[in-house]
């Protein structure tokens, strides 16, 4: 029985969670003075500040966190009002805030739209958030969705009234259908108007609330009292926070807090202290700009606490609360076949022990190889010196022999010349040859008589 109730609880929890991630939330704010985008994280009550990016713009209107591509990681969206390049989408990767797409690819709106704000919700149940934005005077609302690799802008519809102070999107009556909730100053009629969103389009209009002579700064849809159902949280220019509920078609409204402070700029909701409960984070126009309001289930009011460790007044434009962590690229862990992840750590020490033994033997081998190189170099030097000495000695000996040969040749030269002269006495003629032969014949005759 307990197990069944537990499963039912988790199913209901999953159903009531919007696509935009709000747990373990960070606070993101943009300055209109120097274009800085700041991230604040709560660590045991201490807020750490990170400068994410310095933009070149000082005319930001609003910002929100949205998982527009359905990858489970939020992107930061900033809104300006200059025409064509109004929507900027940034993703947080490797601890850097980088532009996800060119603003020209995201929207193409006319100038001076006078946008109210920008929010995000999965209005077509495709597990991807869409951006919803609307101008102050036209009463026309737009959605921007990510399809494939393109951003598609669609007109959701026009409201009967044309002037709104704030709006948000969420399921406020528990029927699992998203609604567009708008709020405005109304001296005569009710101030809250609700429009069902069917297939991404605005449907039937419903009017709730009480008349208000004060205009509103911000409106958010969230579960602030942890009862499993969404409420409407609104903040007016007198510094009053209200909580409104619609249950079974019945509307109720209560005061959450009266701050008596009129310089509020924006607010958002999320669990920033990891207590599994949403807090309201408000932005003020003063040196201590950030306030956190926690809901007390007993008193049913919120009590503020100021974040006092950030003092510069930098003309902040807006505030966004949500999970925003860097998508760091990590190396893939290769798991061997037929091995579970639990088995791998047990085998790692064995692998390390096997590889240590050859590492210990490497050092002496390296030393021996160095000595061998030295020995070889020494032998080469010795051989070179020996060869050089041999060449020198051989050269000197050859010179001596040459001198002796030269002297001997000079001594024998006269004899050779004499012999050559004697031979040259007999000219090469037929007559000289006959005389020579006759002389030889007479000589042989004399020798035979003897």
H and E string: HEEEEEEEHEEEEEEEEEEEEEEEEEHH
Across the major sheet, the strand order is 3-2-1-24
Low-confidence stretches: 1-21, 339-369, 412-429
Supply the number of helical segments.
Answer: 4
Q: Would you tell me the overall average pLDDT?
A: 78
Rounded to the nearest angstrom, the distance between the terminal CA atoms is 163 Å
Q: Per the principal axes of the C-alpha atoms, what is the gross shape?
A: elongated
Largest sheet: 4 strands, antiparallel
Proportion of residues in helical segments: 25-40%
Rounded to the nearest angstrom, the radius of gyration is: 50 Å
**What class, by secondary structure content?**
alpha+beta
Fraction of residues in β-strands: 35-45%
Multimer state = single chain
Q: Tally of extended strands?
A: 24
What do you see in this structure?
- The chain has 450 residues and is an alpha+beta fold.
- It is built from 4 helices and 24 strands.
- The protein has helices at residues 2-16, 103-106, 343-423, 430-449, and strands at 26-31, 36-43, 46-54, 62-66, 75-79, 87-93, 96-99, 115-121, 130-135, 140-147, 150-158, 166-170, 179-183, 192-198, 201-208, 216-222, 231-236, 240-247, 250-258, 264-270, 279-284, 290-296, 301-306, 316-322.
- The strands form 6 sheets. Strands 3-2-1-24 form a 4-stranded antiparallel β-sheet, with no helix packed on it.
- The longest helix is centred in the last third of the chain and has 81 residues, at 343-423.
- Residues 1-21, 339-369 and 412-429 have low confidence and may be disordered.
């Amino acid at each position: 029985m307990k197990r069944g109730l537990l499963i039912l609880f988790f199913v209901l929890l999953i159903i009531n969670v919007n696509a935009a991630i709000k747990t373990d939330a960070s606070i993101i704010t943009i300055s209109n003075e120097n274009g800085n985008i700041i991230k604040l994280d709560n660590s045991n009550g201490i807020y750490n500040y990170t400068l994410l990016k310095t933009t070149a713009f000082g005319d930001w209107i609003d910002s929100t966190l949205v998982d527009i591509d359905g990858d489970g990681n939020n992107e930061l969206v900033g809104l300006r009002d200059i025409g064509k390049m109004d929507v900027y989408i940034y993703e947080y990767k490797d601890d850097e805030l980088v532009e996800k797409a060119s603003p020209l690819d995201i929207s193409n709106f006319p100038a001076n739209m006078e946008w109210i704000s920008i929010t995000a919700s999965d209005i077509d149940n495709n597990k991807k958030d869409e951006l919803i934005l609307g101008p102050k005077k036209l009463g026309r609302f737009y959605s921007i969705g990510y399809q494939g690799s393109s951003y598609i802008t669609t007109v959701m519809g026009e409201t009967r009234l044309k002037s709104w102070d704030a709006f948000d999107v969420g399921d406020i009556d528990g029927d699992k259908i998203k609604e567009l909730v708008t709020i405005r100053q109304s001296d005569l009629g009710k101030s809250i108007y609700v429009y069902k969103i069917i297939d991404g389009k605005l449907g039937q209009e419903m009017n709730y609330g009480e008349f208000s002579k004060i205009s509103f700064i911000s409106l958010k849809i969230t579960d602030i009292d942890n009862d499993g159902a969404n409420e409407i949280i609104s903040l007016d220019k007198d510094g009053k926070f209200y909580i409104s509920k619609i249950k079974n078609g019945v509307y109720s409204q209560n005061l959450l807090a009266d701050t008596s402070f009129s310089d509020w700029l924006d607010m958002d909701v999320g669990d920033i202290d990891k207590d599994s409960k949403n807090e309201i984070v408000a932005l003020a126009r003063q040196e201590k700009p950030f306030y956190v309001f926690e809901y007390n289930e007993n008193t049913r009011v919120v009590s503020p606490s100021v974040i006092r460790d950030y003092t510069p007044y930098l003309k902040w434009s807006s505030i966004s609360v949500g999970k925003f962590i860097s998508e760091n690229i990590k190396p893939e862990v290769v798991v061997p076949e037929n091995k579970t992840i639990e088995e791998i750590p047990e085998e790692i020490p064995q692998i390390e022990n096997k590889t240590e033994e050859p590492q210990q033997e490497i050092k002496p081998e390296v030393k021996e190889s160095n000595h061998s190189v030295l020995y070889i170099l020494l032998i080469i030097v010795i051989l070179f010196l020996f060869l050089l000495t041999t060449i020198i000695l051989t050269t000197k000996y050859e010179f001596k022999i040459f001198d002796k040969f030269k002297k001997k040749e000079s001594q024998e030269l006269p004899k050779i010349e004499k012999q050559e002269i004697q031979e040259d006495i007999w000219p090469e003629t037929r007559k000289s040859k006959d005389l020579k032969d006759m002389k030889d014949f007479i000589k042989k005759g004399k020798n035979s008589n003897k």
